[in-house]
């Protein structure tokens, strides 16, 4: 039956060997002590343990084999390599009070406790012990903690019992054999044994490989013609930054961040980028791509003519937070130079940015939307002097929502510029790169594409088809018992992230949130509080999936498996960064099987684990969640009312402002956008891109050839459909690659076998 699923199922021994979760290693007695009261003393205790664990873990979980750990690399940088100082100075509405969901939640908790107390007092007749327990289960945190003690034991026992599944054993089926079949299906392709089954499998695969081969050859020819040959352009392997001919101020900036030895992507990118070549770069998450493009930019800028200030470099990022982070790292690296920067992202004061742009900063770090706003509406700002264009998370930029904006930005840059693209999931698809207008780029792919970091343990918790309603209970159980700090949890929607934050708050877990429904101030604050260990859990949407670098995130939990494999890699890439250990836990539904297979296939078997949450634990937490559902609704309602009140206040202010300064306000020129209102609306409604695009192209004459977006095959599809199709194509490509690798390995193996005479 191909490969057994032993490699995949986590046994208790495996667990001991491979899983280092400090909280689980504590004495049960110590846990009892800590869990019994969550009052002040308990919290203090938790903090001390938290610190102890941090210190202990610092030494234990760092991978000394990692390329840039030899000199202390990943571990010696400052605790806060970035901050949001620049972003904070540009916050709008600083004086406006905002809703504090935490206040509403703690008020609700207090009310519940008081209600419970008064019920007990009123009840003159002592309740039978059993009822008392039930009552406490629903409302009392301390008793809930006692449940956890049992749960700790349960969890340890049950980790290996079921082949793959939450509480599958309790359901009585499927049998272990069924489980093995399911999992080995996915594993078979990786098996090294020469079983008949596998040979059959190979025959099937080879058929499709034959079909693919012709296409591949053509594609390969196109690539050979398009890309600059790498060997010619990479002068040599660099073991240190000083061997790269970098100037002293840059070396000092690097040392200041604790960067002593370049990472692989830095060693390969910096020399090529210094030659002014276009670059298409890919390396796993957390491998130092930011410095790989910032360092050569700074070095080149040191030699800029200084007579006349102009904006020479543009760095584009898909999210505001990532842009703020890149800006902050760049400013720190340039700490010993006179290079100037400006952060241009949505959600922050346009006026302040306009003022900064007037000074013609050397480098602008921006999100596309706000940048276009400035190109159109900020007097005197343009990109006609730009010499370098960088697109971080470039593959994301090519997706819908960005593609049109990108075309507009590229149109504003001179053709002679240097262009560099980076992403952990970068592809070398020629069509895409032509669209990004790269010229004869050097392809610098350091790691095997579509892989997670080597120090990442990927766990999966199965959610059976009829048990989808268990998700919140499972998440709560995992967080109460096992993953207690530095956990980022990804959700598909803002509403789900918000509701879970409320649920966590109601059970006394310290959680924050990061998604698009928050004000920019709240978003920055959440990230900083999470970075500074003030909150243990960050409930996030994919807004936080790419690029964010928070030192020491222990665990990434995917409440839902993302629908694209690349997105999965970016999410789990928030941990196990810069050579450190990390763990991801993904709740996998029946519909996610394909994605699960891809994750398993792309990892070493030692990296992949199965986690089982016992059925009785799930049941207990489910009851808890259900008992809190009305309170969640009340909190949401209160929040809604508060928001309505605030919005009314804002309207009032606005009207007062209009009355007082109406003339001045109406005299200002209206801000324009590169699309007409109708076009914008149309694009937002995500409909018929073909009509929209062709109209825009006709309007914008003369249009540079490079901006003509040829995407005939997606024409007429809705945005969602197109994204789905593109994601499926990406995934197909990945599977194709995997099959190809396997076939060539097999061919090589056969070729290596001694031939009969
Ligand atoms: N040469 C170096 N020595 C030590 N640490 C480094 C070095 N280069 C980068 N780092 C650290 O590695 C971490 C990851 O870097 P960075 O955020 O640039 O990764 P990335 O490859 O861009 O990740 P992602 O794909 O998630 O965006 C950061 O904390 C950074 O400070």
TrEMBL record:
One of its GO terms (molecular function) is hydrolase activity. Residues 26-35, 130-161, 176-218 have a biased composition (Acidic residues). One of its GO terms (cellular component) is nucleolus. Residues 92-123, 677-718 have a biased composition (Basic and acidic residues). It is found in: Nucleus, Nucleolus. It catalyses: ATP + H2O = ADP + phosphate + H(+). Its main location: nucleus. One of its GO terms (biological process) is ribosomal large subunit assembly. Residues 41-53, 741-757 have a biased composition (Basic residues). Residues 270-444 form the Helicase ATP-binding domain. Keywords: ATP-binding, Helicase, Hydrolase, Nucleotide-binding, Nucleus, Ribosome biogenesis, RNA-binding. Residues 1-20, 26-219, 676-757 are annotated as: Disordered. Residues 239-267 form the DEAD-box RNA helicase Q domain. Its EC number is 3.6.4.13. A motif (Q motif) lies at residues 239-267. It comes from the Eukaryota. It holds the Pfam family Helicase_C. It is an enzyme of class 3 (hydrolase). Residues 455-619 form the Helicase C-terminal domain. ATP-binding RNA helicase involved in ribosome assembly. Belongs to the DEAD box helicase family. DDX27/DRS1 subfamily. This is ATP-dependent RNA helicase DRS1. It comes from Absidia repens.
